[in-house]
Amino acid sequence: MKVLMKTSLLSAAGLGLLISSCFSPHAAAQTQTTDLPNTLLGWRGVELYSARHQLSAGYGDWREVGARGIYETGAHQIAAEVATMNRFNQDANYLGVGDTVVLDPLWYASLAVGAGDGATYLPRYRADAFLHRKLLPARNLVASLGMGHFKSPDGHRDDNISLGGTLYLEQPWVLQGEMRHTHSNPGQVGTAQYFVAATWGHHKQTLVTGRYGWGEEGYQSLGSLGAIARFSSHQSTLTVQHWMGSDWGIKASADNYKNPYYRREGLLLSVFKDWP
């Protein structure tokens, strides 16, 4: 068995997961990609996307458009995202950038930073760092240790630590899991979140990914409507991406999120181009 762990745009743990994990404006736990930079340099891919979500309890719809990209140079893989959005009836913009670097044949690491433009539901700044190690004789299990810091414009802050793993099975399966503990202030609130995910399919053809997350959140800003604290939440996502040609394709992602205060359902559509 040859374990496929190179990075390709929107692969099982590709650009979409990388950006949402490293740069997501949300304080909730996210998935960390475990793909590696490969021997090819230059642009690895770009993606343009649009998303819309409907919220219950009169919180108004969410709208978002953005662009994502990955560029490789040497042992480094640079990822970036820029997005403009409206959530809780408040306009905002977000920018994130990150670097994944190969340390040796078994170890690699990543660091990402991001910031909003002052909207209360975006971070004033956030930083996330991960250390990865390949395990098993076939090196098809990747263990990941992460730490993150999130500072919001209203002074709220989160510090988290996470432990996760990605198992590359005989194609067409990839399995992921993660647990994360977050310490939120003010209030000294400790919460735990968990997720599991599975991807089926083949790169350059069709990939289907299902993800389910659950646990508690310590704090969430509702924009000008205030904030909620110490509550449980559940989130399920189904993503289908399909290559229309050898180097481009489309992706659709349906999302369902629930907490005691509101429910959110939405769809993200994107077009992407990747390079060999």
Summarize the structure.
This protein has a single domain (15-274), classed as Beta Barrel (Porin), CATH 2.40.160. The protein has one helix and 14 strands. It has one helix at residues 15-23, and strands at residues 42-55, 62-73, 76-87, 90-102, 107-116, 125-135, 141-151, 157-168, 173-185, 189-202, 206-221, 227-243, 248-258, 263-274.
Number of contiguous helices: 1
Integer count of domains = 1
Structural class: mainly beta
The largest sheet has its strands arranged as: 1-2-3-4-5-6-7-8-9-10-11-12-13-14
Q: What's the β-strand tally?
A: 14
| Biggest beta-sheet profile | 14 strands, antiparallel, barrel
CATH topology, which one?
Porin
Question: What's the name of the CATH homologous superfamily?
Answer: monomeric porin ompg
- Looking at the overall shape, the CATH architecture is Beta Barrel
Highest-level CATH class: Mainly Beta
Percent in helix: under 10%
